[in-house]
Amino acid sequence: MAQSFAVRQFRFWLTNYRRTWQGSIYSGVLNPVLYLGAMGIGLGSLVDQHGTKSLGGVSYLAFLAPGLLAAAAMQTAMGESTYPVYGSVKWLKTYQAAISSPLRPADLFHGHLLWTTLRLTMNSAVFLVVMAAFGAVQSAWVLACLPAAVLTGLAFGAPIEAYAMTCTKDTSFAMLFRFGIIPLFLFSGTFFPISQLPAYVRPLAYVTPLWHGVALCRSLSLGTAQLGGSAVHIAYLVAVTVAGVITGNRTYRRRLYA
Fold first, then answer.
1. Helices 105-133 and 60-81: crossing angle, nearest 10°?
2. Which residues are CB-contacts of 80 (< 8 A; sequence separation ≥ 6)?
3. What is the span of the domain harbouring residue 15?
4. Measuring CA to CA, how many Å separate 80 from each of 101, 200, 245?
């Protein structure tokens, strides 16, 4: 029964999306096209001229594309887990209306996580198609990048949704983006190998979910994935997601039953 209630909440977000999907389609397609065109091909042509030994002997485009896939999943998760959640409880009051029905706070949280999972799947699938069109695919294992990217996004989506329910001002999201998402985007191996960072900074990158997502997607895309290393990345991302779900169950209940 609880699962069916979560699905009903998921259907609410799906119905809402049917009215606004055109705008997200443009961004979902243009983002990978512009990033891969400008960074992968434009900047990549300069990088490739100076040698690709530090990239594992592959072109910069092939190195960059799976990292951007994971980073795009992180950004999608943040977009779905901040203002939509905050607005539902602070401005629109749809969450307060929903718990007047048989739905519980956990149903609202799980239903929105299902919706976030769908959005991550859609955007990541489009990104993979664009990667293939740009010739950035090196291995058939790239298909496994789809669930890997979705898991990476959920490792951000679940904790951020839990955090969004505790916020009383939306300025908190600007701080999160400036001091959380942007540094991760730049220093988690998306654009260059972590080995290029100073030794004392690398451990900070290794404990971030994005680095694990980037490393997992890149190894799958390049066909260099090892069972042990992939298992570590997956276990880490699953652990962060589960911790976010547990925390979200509590923050939703405290905020909506207060």
1. 160
2. 112, 115, 116, 119, 157
3. 2-256
4. 24, 33, 15
Measure CA 14 to chain center: 19
> Under a CB-based contact definition with an 8 Å cutoff, are residues 64 and 39 in contact?
yes
Indicate the number of domains in the chain: 1
Tokens representing 34?
């512009």
Q: Write down the pTM of the prediction.
A: 0.94
pLDDT in tens, the chain (258 residues): 556 899 999 999 999 998 888 877 777 788 889 889 888 888 888 888 887 777 888 999 999 999 999 999 999 999 999 999 999 999 999 999 999 899 999 999 999 999 999 999 999 999 999 999 999 999 999 999 999 999 999 999 999 999 999 999 989 999 999 988 999 988 999 999 998 888 888 998 899 999 999 999 999 999 999 999 999 999 999 999 999 999 999 999 999 986
Do 236 and 154 touch, CB atoms closer than 8 A?
Answer: no
